[in-house]
Each structure stands twice: as structure tokens, then as C-alpha cells.
Design brief:
- 3 copies of one chain form a homotrimer.
- The first copy, chain A, is α/β, with parallel strands linked by helices and 346 residues long.
- Chain A has 3 domains: 9-99, 3-Layer(aba) Sandwich (Udp-n-acetylmuramoylalanyl-d-glutamate--2,6- Diaminopimelate Ligase, Chain: A, domain 1), CATH 3.40.1390; 105-250, Hexapeptide repeat proteins (UDP N-Acetylglucosamine Acyltransferase, domain 1, 3 Solenoid), CATH 2.160.10.10; 311-346, no CATH class.
- Chain A is 13% helix and 29% strand.
- Chain A contains 4 helices and 40 strands.
- In chain A, a hairpin with a 2-residue loop joins strand 22 (191-194) and strand 23.
- The longest helix of chain A is centred in the C-terminal third of the chain and has 16 residues, at 329-344.
- The interface between A and C is large, with 77 and 85 residues.
- Strand 39 (305-308) of chain A pairs antiparallel with strand 40 (314-315) of chain B.
């Protein structure tokens, strides 16, 4: 990818911005961030995982961000920090080429309804549509082709990438990041069944996203049936995730790709849902629960901890033999109990 | 969310529209619909599930829609109906703020090809694109940024929300609701394999949706390879669903979020597929089948009923011990049989 | 669907284009392609699977494409080829109505930044947005409402359908096909955890797609954290697929619908992932691996072959009895071992 717009920093500047201790020549300039094994003489790199320590002696980087305990092994300049992975996060944002590209103003092809309230330095991209009653906070960026439905409010510093859809009556906090193709506030899936057919229940609730929420590409968060679907502060949602109506997600929880959560389930704070996890509807998952990838949760969870289901892949030949036995499992257990009884009675 | 555009009704009007029996002052006016525990004095609420009966005595609602058998316990005005959940569905549609917002006409930024046939009161939103040969029935709404490919026909009363894509040569019945980000008529996944590489099979079929079909946010229904992909009348499809080429879904079936159906599988009428269910290709699922969440169906089903697979989540420590035994299951079964034989021979 | 724009060919022309041997009247004209049982007298059809041989005697088609060994049983004109399924693929592309519809030029409503480099015969549809620094090769088609981010390069002959999003700094090879709603280059899911909250790691890598890649509707391929996410040549990706940051997919691999691949996993060449398969992060899957539908792979795979996990659906009553035993599996195995020991000691 392009590095054309990435900025350059002296090591001294970086140490100051990160609150790191500098060892080496502070006037040296770096213009990129790369991994230990791929960094060149214009780059800064980082060491946050001992598994990569083997690459440290041969790094060609101008400088390495690492833990003070590893500074002695570093063949070049270094910035030391107690949590170098957090330092990497900060560095990555300094080198983000999107930062310098913001261009406040409304593109002439965007359609903005009368009476929309725009904060300072709002950027509205080409072909975007902002319906009546919308309020956008300071510095909000609306990407090309994105649509914001009537009466929606988006807090300061939030960014909608291209082709995002936020439906009517949604509330989004500050510093949200919504990736392309995601949809916030589509109808929940609600029908009354009568006479052999479905009768739609209009979804009259909304969606409320807290501050610092991120939603991945092509994810969907449905609006509530009556009350709102509620996503807490600092909730991070990956791509291809589905959150049904009236779900609640507590602050600081993270949902990996392809997670699906059925209606009215409440997930606590600081929960981690692995990729492809499914939660049934109307459950309560307490704070501090971690569910491993592709597990199905059909009951509420009241104790923090790690939960799992399923069986990992094996060779198809081995799997066939075992999977067929799964269907006999209850029968096998009964035969086992019979044998035990026979033995006891002897 | 906003209530700015929601209408107000007298209880008398509501009783009449719902065919309900009114007990109380028919001139009282309500302007909102809310749950039993959250409704205020301007709202009507409903009781459709005995689990919520405990909230009835303290409700602050102006009126409650409920079964005649519970009218005596109601502390306020009530509307009685044999099926109060169906009544709630009807009420919800009366309070839907989208209803009053329709604004027939074509937005000046929309691009509509020459010769497109528009029924009466069609609304085409900003930045929408309607290609050549399209026909839209009376009252069709095309949301902002939606694209309708060449030669597609959409029946009267259908609504496409924002950023919907309907590809060329698709037929959609009346009163369809297509949510944002869904794609109807993308190519099916078909390739011939030869010489170590893939050779594309052009997908020449279309997609036909019956009347009263709803498709959720970010769902995709692929076009057929030669014949059409067929979705029956009154089929309800949730968000993040994938329907492959030449699938057929019978009338009145409902598919929850994240369902995936592989090519050429036929699902009967009145089927219910739970969230995340996967159906292999070329299967036949008869009428009246229900499959529970995240089950994998690899064989045809010929008897109505409920079907399941998988194992629910447990603590990771417990799961690890059991999951490892799954790989030994065939061996365990053989050891059990050996013991039984030994016992018999004694 | 419409056949209005489909071309007509003589059998002689078709035989020549396919390199097939013609038996029958070469001047006969066909204007459509259909299945053996549905083809009419204006159509050509094909027989590639012995299961359909029973339909051959009664076909009403003008001609049948089939293996030379079956020519004798064909009641009408035929074109013979060693690999008739490959011949069907070639035929399907000849009858593709999209082929004749290309209309080079930039629609007046498209927004194309200054300095964008366009090859010959590029078509940019209505409401599309092309940001600064983009390069589009000869014959590239950008569908209505699609957005191409800054500094992205797309190779000759590639087609983006409607409402596709390609983010900044992405590289796409020649002859790619990107279906509606897909997103290439959204942020990967990366955060440092500190002080009980998440700190975003800017995703500075890009996405590189090789030549002849196809990506289905609503699929997402995330950009790399530092290096690029790499998709090889001739990789075919179905709808609703999620590919996380820094994943690598080898040439000629195919991923069915709803597959999810977690970060940094490397999939080899000629791999086949069934629908709904999940791969954990940081794995290595060697060349020639096939994983059956909805399997979860949590360990690297070093031997080519077929792999599976999970258990197929059964009746819910049967399933309940067996699934509850799964939680006792380790205990059952221990009880079995105890019985065996008791027997041995006798």
C-alpha cells in the first residue's frame, strides 16, 4: 500500500508523545512503522511478544519500541515502555495516513436535508445523504455514499467510512468508527404468527451506541422492537456480526467476526466473544465471560470464566467414525450402566 | 429514538381498527406504544405472555391490550382480543413513524434510465439508480443510494431501504421489505475445475421473490445458474443470511440471522430455521421442519418436526476433557462392545 | 429473468468457439442455454453428470453438449467434448447478457478525483466515487454507487458490481469480479488492552488481490495491521465470507459462503473450505486441504486431505438425549476404563 501521505517523526518526538524513554540519537527521523523482521532503516518497529525476540538482533529498523528489560539486547536505538504493545497502538495511530486526509466541508454531490445540525469541521463525502433532523457533532466524517436516516444523532469525532447506513432515530456517541457496509438500525426480526402466516411487528425502538464504539465491515445492529438496542461504551464489534433487536452489550466488551446474538440477550461488561459464536435469545451473560470461537450458548451464564462448545476438526475418516457414535451416545451410556450393575451384583 | 412523527389515536379508534372490545373511556388519547413496565400515561401497552402478568397491576399505561380472560385484573382501560400478540403487531404498525413519511416523487439526484415504468406514488430517494427496463409497481419506495439493475420488476407496495442492491433481471412481488445492505441477485458460486484452475460459470438465472417477503440487513440471495432462485410468498429472512443459487424456499417459512443455505437445496413451507443454521446443497427439507440454532443439516429431511445438532457451551475446563474424548468415541464404543461380549461369554 | 439481450449463435459457431466436435446441422441457431429437462427448441443444453442421463432421450433442446461416449444416445444434434462441464462453463459465458451491456465512459453523476488514471474503455457507473490517486486498468467496470478509496489500483478487465466498497491503498489484479455489498480493505480488528479499555491499533497494511479473484456479495476482506492481507491468483470467495487482517490465501483456493478466517492464518493453494467453516488465527493450512461445511479448525494442518468437525442434525428428541451425554463423556470413559481394569484383574 501507499506510504505517500505518512508523516515523519524524530525519535525524540516519538519518545515524548508516547511517554517512552529514549536510548540513542533523538534526532534520527523515521517515516514508517513495520514489523521487526520487515522494518528498514527508515522505520521504527516494536517488540511486544517474546516469540519475536529472535528477530531483534538482526533488525534493520532505525529504532525499536520495547520493554526496558530488553533494551540491552537491542542492536539499535530504542524507546522503552512498560507496555510496548500499548505503545505500538499509539505509534500506529501516529502513522495512520487517514489522519492527515480529513477535509472539512460538504461535497457538492452530497444531499443534506434542510435543518440538519452540523458541528464544526464536519466532512460529508460525495454522494452521501443526510436526512431531516440529523445532528452531527464536531469533526464527524461521513464517507462517500453513506446514508444517515432522519432524526439520528452522531457524537463528535465519529467517522463513518464509505457506504455505511445508519437508519432513522439512531443515537451514536463520540469517536465511533463505522466501517463500510455496516448497517445500524435496520428492523429487528419480529412477527406475530396467525392463520398460517406472518404479521409484521413494526420495530419502533432505536439503537443507542455509547462512546468509542467500533463496528466492522458488513455488520448489522438491528433496532429495538419497543425499547432500544443498547451498545455500551468502548464496545468493539468486528466484521460480519449480527446483533438482533433489544440486545444489550456492556461496556468494554469485544465481539469477533461472524458473531450472532439473538433478540433481547444481555451481554455484560468486559466480555469477549470469539469468532462465529452464537448466543440464543433472552439470555443474560454476566460480566467477564469469554466464549471461544464458534461456540453456541443456549443458557444464561452467571459466573465469569471461559466457555466453549463443539469439537475441533480431525481427518474426515476419523471424524466419520466418531460422529456416527455421537448418535449412539445415549445408548452407549446405558449399556455401560448395565455392565456396571452386572459387575456390582456379582 | 424520536417520537416526533408518531400519530395519536383515541382508544375508541384503536378498538375499531383492531376489532377489539373496549373497556373504559374511549375518548382517551394515546400517542405511543411501550412495554407494560415502561409505558407511561400517554401510552398504550399490551400483555401477550403470562410471564409479564406480574407487571400488570402497576402499569402506568393509559390502556392495555390483552386477552379477555385477564381484563378483570387490569387496573386501567383495556382493549380485549383473543390473540393479543397479533393485536400488538397491528398496533405497532399504526405507530410506525415511517408510515407518514412517504413522499412520492423522484429525487433530483436519482438516476432513472429512460423507459423505466413507474406506478403511481412511487418514491425514489436521493442518489438511487434505476437501470433500463425496470418496472416499479404503485407505491414502491426506493431508499437513498439503492440500485436496481436492468429489467428488474418490483411489485406494488414494496419498500427498499437505503443502500439496497437488486441486480438485473430479478422479480420481486408485492409488499416486499428489503433492508439496507442486502443484495438480491448477485452471482451464484459456480465454477468448472480444469487444469488446476477455476473456470467461471456465468450465472444466467435470476431470483424470484413472492409477495410479502422481507429480507434483513446485509443478507444476500444469489441468482440461479440456469433456472431461478425461488423465494415463496410470506417468507421472512433475517439479517446476515446467505441463500445460494437455485435454492427454493416454500411459502411462510422464516430464516433467522446468519443462516446459510447451499446451492439447489429446497426448503418446504412453514419451516423455521434458527440462527446460524447451515443446510448443505442439493437437499430437500419437507414442509413443517424446524431446525434449532447453529445446527448443520447434511441430509434431506422427510418428516416434519424439530431437528438439532451440536453441543451447548460449558465451562472450558469441562469442555476440554469431554471434547478430547469425542475423538476417542469410536474406540470407546468398541471397548464397550468387547466388555459386553466378555460378560456374555461367562 | 429477461432474455432480451442474449445473443444467438449457430451450432457451427459454438463448436468452433468451444473446440467441440459437431454432429448435426451446423446452421441451426440457438439463442439460449438451459438444463436438459427445461431446454426448448431454441436452446442448447449440456450433460455433464450421469445422474441426468435419464433426461437425455426426451430433451426438446436444439442441441446437447456432452461427452463423445454419450453422443449415440442423443436424440438431437450434439457437440462433443472430453470435459462437458468445462464446455458448459464456456457456453454460459457466451450467453451472459452482461457481456454486451458494457458502455465505456464515465456517468455524469460519478465523482472522479483529479489525476485518477483510467485505462482504455473504462466504464464508471452513476453515483460512483473514485478518490485521488486511483488507477484503473483497461476495460475496468465500476458499478453504480461503488466507491474506490485513494491510491487503490485495479487491474485490466476487472468488474465491480453495484455498491461495492474498495478502501484506500488496495491492489487488485486483472479480471477480478467483486459482487455487490462486498468490502475490500476495511480495518482489521486490532486493539491493545490497557487499564480496562481498548486502544485502537491503526491498520496500516493494505489488501492485495491477485489476478482472477472473485469475491461474493456482502463479503469482507480486512486490511493488514502492518503488512498486507494477501489473496492469491484464481482464488474464489463466495458470499458472506469474512477474511481478517494479514490472512494469506494461496492460489486456486475456493471458500464457500459464510466462511470466517481469523487474523494471520495462512491457507495454502488448492484448498477448499466448505460453507460456514471457521479457521482460528495464526494457523498454517497446507496446500490441498479440504474442510467440510461448518467445521472449526483450531490447529494447523500439515497433511493434505479432508477434515471435518461437528455432528450432523438429528431429531431434537434423539439429539437431547445424546447431547446431554456429551457433557458426561469424560466420566463415561473413566467408568469404562474402571470396568476394564476390574475385568482384567479377574
Amino acid at each position: 500500500m501507499t506510504h505517500a501521505h505518512t508523516p515523519a517523526f524524530t525519535l525524540e518526538e516519538l519518545a515524548e508523545r508516547l511517554g517512552a524513554t529514549l536510548i540513542g540519537d533523538g534526532r534520527r527521523r523515521v517515516s514508517g512503522l513495520a514489523t521487526l523482521s520487515e522494518a528498514g532503516p527508515e522505520d521504527i518497529t516494536f517488540l511486544a511478544n517474546r516469540a519475536y525476540l529472535k528477530y531483534l538482533p538482526e533488525t534493520r529498523a532505525a529504532a525499536v519500541l520495547l520493554h526496558p528489560g530488553q533494551a540491552e539486547e537491542c542492536p539499535t536505538a530504542c524507546l522503552t515502555l512498560e507496555n510496548p504493545y500499548l505503545g505500538y497502538a499509539a505509534l500506529s495511530r501516529l502513522f495512520d495516513p487517514l489522519i492527515g486526509r480529513q477535509a472539512p466541508g460538504t461535497h457538492p454531490t452530497a444531499v443534506v436535508a434542510d435543518g440538519v445540525v452540523l458541528g464544526r469541521d464536519v466532512e460529508i463525502g460525495p454522494q452521501a445523504v443526510i436526512e431531516a433532523g440529523v445532528e452531527l457533532g464536531d469533526g464527524v466524517v461521513v464517507g462517500p455514499g453513506s446514508v444517515i436516516g432522519a432524526d439520528t444523532r452522531i457524537g463528535a469525532g465519529s467517522r463513518l467510512h464509505a457506504n455505511v447506513t445508519v437508519c432513522h432515530g439512531v443515537v451514536i456517541g463520540e469517536r465511533a468508527i463505522l466501517h463500510s457496509g455496516c448497517v445500524i438500525g435496520g428492523d429487528g426480526f419480529g412477527f406475530a404468527h396467525d392463520g398460517g402466516r406472518w404479521h409484521k411487528i413494526a420495530q419502533l425502538g432505536g439503537v443507542v451506541l455509547g462512546d468509542d464504539v467500533e463496528v466492522g465491515s458488513c455488520s448489522s445492529i438491528d433496532r429495538g422492537a419497543l425499547g432500544d438496542t443498547l451498545i455500551g461504551n468502548d464496545v468493539k464489534i468486528d466484521s460480519q456480526v449480527q446483533i438482533a433487536h433489544n440486545v444489550q452489550i456492556g461496556d468494554h466488551s469485544a465481539l469477533a467476526g461472524c458473531v450472532g446474538i439473538a433478540g433481547s440477550t444481555k451481554v455484560g461488561q468486559h466480555c469477549l466473544l470469539g469468532g462465529g459464536v452464537g448466543l440464543s435469545g433472552h439470555l443474560t451473560i454476566c460480566d467477564g465471560v469469554q466464549v471461544t470461537g464458534m461456540s453456541l450458548v443456549t443458557n444464561s451464564i452467571h459466573e465469569p470464566g471461559v466457555y466453549s462448545s463443539g469439537t475441533g476438526a480431525m481427518s474426515n475418516a476419523q471424524w466419520r467414525k466418531n460422529a456416527v457414535r455421537f448418535k449412539q451416545l445415549d445408548a452407549l451410556a446405558k449399556r455401560l450402566a448395565r455392565l456396571e450393575k452386572a459387575q456390582e451384583s456379582r
